[in-house]
Each structure stands twice: as C-alpha cells, then as structure tokens.
Write a structure and sequence with these properties.
Radius of gyration: 16 Å
CATH superfamily: dinb family like domain
CATH class: Mainly Alpha
Order of helices and strands: HHHHHEEH
Distance between the termini: 15 Å
Helix content: 55-70%
Shape: globular
Structural class: mainly alpha
Strand order of the largest sheet: 1-2
Number of strands: 2
Strand content: under 5%
Oligomer: single chain
CATH architecture: Up-down Bundle
C-alpha cells in the first residue's frame, strides 16, 4: 500500500506542475477572470487545491503526532494561500507554495509505513459515524479532491482552447 500512496503523491505533484506550467503561460487577467466555478477563477481553483492539501496535511499530522513520518509536513506551517484574487507577484508565490506543498507531501508519502497508513484520522464529517478513518483512506481522498479540481481547471482550459492533456498517468515520474 505504501507504494500506491507514493505513486499518488508523485502523480499529484506531476499533474500540479503541468497545470502550473499551463497557467504560467496565460495572463494574470485570464487566471483571475470569473469562470463560473465555485472557486470563481483558475487561480481560485489552484488556491483551493493548495489550501485543501494543507487541510489534509493537518489531518495527517494530527493522526501521526510526532512520529518520524510526519516530519516532512512541518515545512507546511509556513505556507498559506491567499483567499482572494491575486496580482502577478502573489500568483508567483502561490505557484511556488503549491510546489512546496507537493514536495512535502511526496516526502511525507515516502516516509510512511504500513503502521502509519493505518493511523486513525479523526473526523467530524459524518456525524461521528465513523469518528475516524485510516490515514490511507484520507490520502486517497486527497488524491481524488485534487484530481477533481484539476478536472475543473482542464474544462476551463478546454473552453479557452488551451491544450491541457496533463491527466494521463506519466510513468516517467516513477
């Protein structure tokens, strides 16, 4: 199972890098334009991916406490994503922040073992039933979350006629 988690983390990192490369190629006005998405703009979706990953990382740290596997997540304490529209400099910091988050997540995945993957992550999402789920389940949920929002970005890029075939699993990152 550890190998699957590492693969998901590396895939997430690679897919986010491809998205950032595409979005770096368009103007800030295009990234910030209202697109009818729940998160409004392309940069809003990227900020949500980053903030969501930070949220999940907090759950992982809560489950593992001071276990060695949690150490790579400590770097995330200094990272945040602005809630509002960005200027060009803020976009650059947001993109760099997402890359740092993805690297910490990949490092974290590489430090996991079967015992840490079974660690209970406390939840209040389901009205207390269940009160917790295994960390491995939450890592899968993080992967699905980010893939879902990259799909929204892809749909917007399709509308803009920007080629964005980033979603196929590229085996080069393994």
């Amino acid at each position: 199972m550890v190998n699957a988690i590492v693969t998901f983390a590396k895939y997430n990192q690679e897919a986010n890098k491809k998205i950032l490369d595409l979005l770096n190629g368009i103007s800030n006005d295009e990234r910030e334009r209202e697109r009818g998405s729940y998160y409004h703009s392309l940069s809003g979706l990227v900020r949500h991916i980053g903030s969501g990953t930070l949220f999940f990382a907090g759950l992982f740290r809560g489950a593992l406490g001071s276990a060695p596997a949690a150490k790579p997540l400590a770097a995330l304490e200094k990272i945040s994503f602005p809630p509002d529209a960005l200027d060009e400099a803020q976009w650059d910091r947001t993109a760099a922040g997402l890359e740092s988050v993805d690297q910490a997540l990949a490092d974290f995945a590489g430090a996991l073992n079967d015992a840490s993957l079974a660690a209970p992550v406390k939840l209040d999402w389901y009205g207390g039933d269940p009160a917790d789920v295994p960390l491995s389940f939450m890592f899968y949920q993080l992967t699905v979350h980010n893939t879902h929002h990259r799909g929204q970005i892809s749909q917007i890029l399709d509308e803009l006629k920007i080629d964005n075939d980033y979603s196929a699993i590229n085996v080069a990152f393994r």
